[in-house]
Amino acid sequence: MRQVTLLGPLDGVDLAAEIAAFGVDGPVALVTAGWEEGERNDAEVDRRLGGGSRNLNLYGRRLDILESDPGYADAERLLRTQIDELRELYLLRLRHALAGLEVIRRRFAEAQRRPGSELDAAIDAVRMLDETHTSSIAAAYEHFYAQNPPHERPAITRHREEVAAIVAGCAAIAIAGGHVGVLNDCLHLGHLAALIEERPLLAWSSGCVAVSERIVVIDDDDPAGRPDEIYDIGIGVARGMVALPAATSRLHAHDPDRLAVLARRCAPSVCVLLDPGDRLELRSGRLADLTSVGVVAEDGQVLRGAQAA
Amino acid sequence: MSPGPARGPRALTRLRSEGSSPEAIDQLLREQRVPLVEGPICTFLWRGDADGVAVDHRMPEIPIPLPLRRLKGTDLWYASVELPRGARIQYRILVRRGESTESMNDPLNPRVVGEPIGSQSVLEADGYLTPDWAYPDPTVVSGELVDLRLPSRALRRDAQVTLYIPSRMRRDRRMPLLVVHDGGDFLQYSSMATVLDNLMYRRLMADCVVAFTHPGDRLREYGASAAHSRFLTGELVPHIEGSLRLRGDPRGRVLMGASFGGVAALSAAVRAPGFYGALLLESPSLRFTEATPSGTFGDVFEPVVRFVNSVRAHPKKVTDRIFLTYGAFEPLAVPDRAMAEVLERMCDELRVMEALDGHNWINWRDRLLDGLGWLFPGEARLIYPG
């Protein structure tokens, strides 16, 4: 049974104790690809993990692949452009759909009536947009991998084999935070999902987001004013949940109406707030213990402790 | 916005109650920042002998110039206005002695800003803060500024361009291109290289290459000139896209300009519909006429007025997004406000920001995060701690 522990942004957490709690013995395979150019600046996190961790260097490997296989790099750039275009259209439609939903919600509030089927229909429209966008991204990836099978690219194969060999000698895997998009790209390219299969996983901050099925991004401080969005598809090791790290600093208003919409958009997955000090356990990829995190209920209330469970 | 209440604000009231002696005035000027900012009430002060003193400014609904009154029995002159929170005003003091009037920066106010047309004093109302991203940050690696000379058939001269190349290059992405009119002024008076360094470093905007163009005969080239549009669309953009690894598609091309530069940006987009993905227009000089006779705004504006009138008559979509900003305290606020509905029909998405500031380079600097952050969305929201 695979063990997964997810943490909020690190804040004095004893990482070595978390690894020890898995009950395994051996070095930890470390992923710090989300730190991008700072990937190898990992001495501090290695110390906190108890020392002897082995950095998989996924960011550096990705750069090497793009450098040594220009054909793949060009194809991937086209894929990125395609996904960026999909995302732009999705955000355009999403803004309008959410604005419409807000108007309906306000109208019910002004009339002091309980939201009815009109609101459900408006939320369904947003859910449909989310689903369509997710499917479009998945189709783009599928087409890309069909056209550019990674196992036929020597540079990718070599790096994947090296990564697999390192992980084979490790007892657990730890994934740090940073840039969730970069991290996600590196996890996919390194084919980490398959390697995580039989090993305990400790992830924190955006590491929790990238190992989920969907990467949902929220940020009230975004200068571009982008709404809560499905950004990408994660590696899907943690299922049935949407990880929202650093939620307290990213959600200023804690507006229950908005959180309710978010919860209903993500359902049946559970929106899990992972602030510093929060901790979530999964067994066989499913939520096992919700008592140490915040959970967004469908009425927009943030539940904690026994209520969350 | 309105002139302040007849009763003087607290500092002056106190001064009066203490007898308004020269020593008391000395002390007031030593201890207080001038103009006085007491909540929403801002009081201009000037000290000396004169036949009349006034403030030259562009605040709406306030007499221009705003006359100062002499505090009875003293050589201290004053006038109060009420300003909204966060407002910022540039002004000069006019001192009349006999037939002659001298325009000067406020000698009691050390806050002065440089402008191409000369320096001006600055009044920062309660709540105004210079954005932290406008200051140089020693921890940020600066982008590179490279001078480029491009022979232009369209302009019949060698065009000078300063290219900004961001410090962070990602091998898996091609960057967009931003073309900025009045590039030298934006670099000098709006600290735009510093702003770009900071916004890109903090990922509040996407990394992009920026072409700062330098005008020749500015009012002619920027006044909706077809030659200038041909230069941008047929020469400059293809040249830069051909020599750097840029996106090279409409969504990767943005034109930006302030004042007449805004007219140049809009007119280039109108002449090449679909070529540019977005426009950033800051206080664009979009003068138009409806009932007023031709020539109302002078010869320089004639081609602009013709262009804007034609756009207003038949607005068509020319680009995806337009960010329009202007100062509430500038004469162009009226036509720019009126143009919003026209611009809305010329793009898919329009964002308008009316700033509590005027027609100046600091206002245009202060709006850069809103404009660039919207047009080139950054990845800050994708980055989580540790």
Give a brief description.
The complex is a heterodimer of chains A (309) and B (386). With 309 residues, chain A is α/β, with parallel strands linked by helices.
Q: How would you portray this structure in words?
A:
- The complex is a heterodimer of chains A (309) and B (386).
- Chain A has 309 residues and is α/β, with parallel strands linked by helices.
- Chain A has a single domain (3-69, 153-303), classed as Rossmann fold.
- Chain A contains eleven helices and 14 strands.
- Chain A has helices at 15-21, 43-48, 58-68, 70-110, 117-147, 154-168, 180-189, 192-196, 206-210, 247-250, 256-266, and strands at 3-7, 28-31, 54-55, 172-175, 178-179, 201-204, 214-217, 229-233, 241-245, 270-274, 279-283, 286-289, 294-296, 302-303.
- Chain A has a seven-stranded mixed sheet.
- Chain A is globular, with a radius of gyration of 20 Å.
- By secondary structure, chain B is an alpha+beta fold.
- Chain B has two domains: 2-124, Immunoglobulins (Immunoglobulin-like, Sandwich), CATH 2.60.40; 132-379, Rossmann fold, CATH 3.40.50.1820.
- Helices cover 28% and strands 27% of the residues of chain B.
- Chain B has eleven helices and 20 strands.
- In chain B, strands 12-13-15-14-16-17-18-19 form an eight-stranded mixed sheet, with helices on both faces.
- The longest helix of chain B is centred in the middle third of the chain and has 18 residues, at 226-243.
- Chain B is globular, with a radius of gyration of 23 Å.
- Mean pLDDT of chain B is 93; it is low at 4-8.
- Chain A binds chain B through residues 9-10, 34, 45, 63, 66-67, 73, 76-77, 80-81, 85, 88, 92, 176-182, 204-206, 209, 217, 219, 221-226, 231, 245-246, 250, and chain B through 171-174, 204-205, 247, 249, 251, 348-349, 369-370, 373-374, 377-386.
